What we know:
Bound molecules: flavin-adenine dinucleotide
Low-confidence stretches: none
CATH class of the largest domain: Alpha Beta
CATH superfamily of the largest domain: FAD/NAD(P)-binding domain
CATH topology of the largest domain: FAD/NAD(P)-binding domain
Mean pLDDT: 96
Radius of gyration: 22 Å
Amino acid sequence: xxxxxxxxxxxxxxSAAVHAVQAGWQxxxxxxxxxxxxxxxxVVHQGLNLDNGxxxxxxxxxxxxxxxxTVGVExxxxxxxxxxxxxxxxxxxxxxxxxxxxxxxxxxxxxxRGWSWSDKGAFIRRALQWQTQRFECATHMTVEDLCAGLxxxxxxxxxxxxxxxxxxxxxxxxxxxxxxxVLQDALLGGSGSSDMLIPLCDLSALLPDAAVPWLRQHxxxxxxxxxxxxxxxxxxxxxxxxxPAWEAARLTQAIxxxxxxxxxALKHTAIAxxxxxxxxxxxxxxxxxxxxxxxxxxxQFVFDKGRLSGEQNLxxxxxxxxxxxxxxxDAITQxxxxxxxxxxxxxxxxxxLTVLEKRAAFACTPGLLRPPAIVTSQLLACGDYIxxxxxxxxxGAVISGKHAVNLLEAMxxxxxxx
Length: 418
Ligand SMILES: Cc1cc2nc3c(=O)[nH]c(=O)nc-3n(C[C@H](O)[C@H](O)[C@H](O)COP(=O)(O)OP(=O)(O)OC[C@H]3O[C@@H](n4cnc5c(N)ncnc54)[C@H](O)[C@@H]3O)c2cc1C
């Protein structure tokens, strides 16, 4: 019997567990928290099903969508699919039509509101240049370097919102190489890749609530409330570490100090989700809207939770997202509340709950060296921070879980044919 222990049941650990079961492994999945899901999970507040942080997926998340379907989630019913939309409250901004790529991008740029023809031409010329260079650039470049010379409306209306939502860093700090990879997959990844997929249910219902029973039905052991203190106790058979970077660093300190140091060196950035009761009927054209943001008005996006969930008790509830946020919860809450009152004309809005994840994403800076998936011949690692093409995302986590199982299989085959 091929046995593997997986430590951590976030989306990377769940992905590893499902792929390992499919490859014929006897899986033991150990999770420290009372529930699976990690950073992408349900949070219940005063009887309302909210999330640890508002998430958005895109059509290019092929592995994540495939994983959901494997465990029985009806992705079409649980995700609101809409063409990429970066519209602001005054109606300015971008919305791609529901056409095949790259026509949708060209038409979306041509009809962008608030951009002059010269802005549109500048962006199209630059995008063609990126395509000619196969979406590759020097590793030391920031997104700001990459976009130098692009007009301000293009930066404010497209590059900055995309950069901060995908890499959780402003363009002045974010890796151009990773940004280009995200753009390439979204814009040229085939039909529907650039679509926004917004959860209609909470994040636990989107994967963990279906994955855990699926795993048990397929013979896996899933234990919650199991905070692993020492990996060595589990190393009688292979282990996959699927905990966050800082915890993986602690657990590998005595086993592989250099790997541990690399994981420990990663820096993290925060995301705040401020849930607000608008005390009004929301009549936005789309369930998600971009907001003009700056230090005193820090939220970049707002979501209409009532419209998305269809639940009566979430009517009028807004989730406002501050990517790359500061760490003062009260200051963020007050600033965002005022921003929502002013920019969305909701004078009676009241804050309900602020979820501040101080280590939401690893800082995806230029030239960043991320730890590899192989720690030792018996110990592998997966998670959004493991070396790979994506920033901290669900897709990055899910792909790394699958990759760890592929490596595990290869190691097993080598050992058993040697
Ligand atoms: C607020 C917020 C907003 C986000 N928005 C988006 C978004 O819009 N789109 C997107 O794609 N991504 C988004 N992300 C990123 C995404 O959530 C993460 O990339 C992904 O969830 C990481 O999954 P993971 O499995 O690698 O790690 P985690 O989710 O951190 O899972 C690790 C698991 O390991 C467990 N664990 C830790 N230590 C131990 C131990 N010693 N023993 C046993 N178990 C242990 C933890 O409890 C946890 O369940 C967002 C993240 C946050 C926080």
